[in-house]
Each structure stands twice: as C-alpha cells, then as structure tokens.
C-alpha cells in the first residue's frame, strides 16, 4: 500500500470522516456550541464548522488538543494516543542502585 497513492488517499479520507463525525458527536454530547468549543481551542467558530463539514482538515496539534479536552471519548481506531509505559527495570539495573 505504501506505493498505492489511491489506497492511501482513501484511508486518509476515511480517517477524516471519522474524526469529523466524532467531533460533532462529542460536541453535542457535552452540550457545546461550535463557538464554545472554538473558544476552548483558541480557534474561530468557523474553523470548527469547517472541520465538521469537511471543508478543512484538522492539524495534528488540534486533534491532540481534542484528545486532551475530551479524553478517551475522542477516539479514532486508526490513531493511538496512549502514552508509553515506563520500561521495567532489569535485575542488573536494580543491583546497580
């Protein structure tokens, strides 16, 4: 698939539709207007409208801000926001301490 531009474009479009739908559903669920959500993200109301309608694309920065704002409710199966767990110390590291 890495050389198949059409397939990549299809997957990206599907991801964007999921993000748009998820954003609108979470905004309704949390009883936020587009203007209220825009104020929380420091963007214009029209930016939220454009995201939800698909007229513009969210930056990865805004996607992550939405995840921080809504937590695990803002999910997309194709994107993982989980933080890396700290590696367990090995026996050798424990002996050195």
TrEMBL record:
Q: Which Gene3D superfamilies match?
A: lambda repressor-like DNA-binding domains
Every HTH cro/C1-type domain range: 23-71
Superkingdom as given in the UniProt entry:
Bacteria
Coiled-coil region = 9-36
Instruction: Fetch the InterPro entries from UniProt.
Output: Cro/C1-type_HTH (IPR001387), Lambda_DNA-bd_dom_sf (IPR010982)
Instruction: Report whether Endoplasmic reticulum shows up as a keyword of the record.
Output: no
Chain ranges passing through the membrane? none
Q: What molecular functions are annotated in GO for this chain?
A: DNA binding
UniProtKB keywords: Coiled coil, DNA-binding
- What's this protein's name? DNA-binding protein
Organism, scientific name: Pseudoalteromonas rubra
């Amino acid at each position: 698939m890495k050389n198949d531009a059409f397939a990549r474009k299809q997957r990206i479009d599907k991801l964007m539709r999921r993000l748009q739908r998820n954003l609108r559903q979470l905004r309704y669920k949390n009883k936020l207007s587009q203007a209220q959500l825009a104020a929380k993200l420091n963007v214009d109301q029209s930016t939220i409208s454009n995201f939800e309608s698909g007229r513009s694309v969210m930056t990865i920065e805004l996607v992550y801000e939405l995840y921080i704002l809504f937590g695990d409710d803002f999910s997309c199966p194709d994107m993982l926001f989980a933080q890396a767990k700290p590696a367990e110390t090995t026996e050798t590291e424990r002996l050195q301490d």
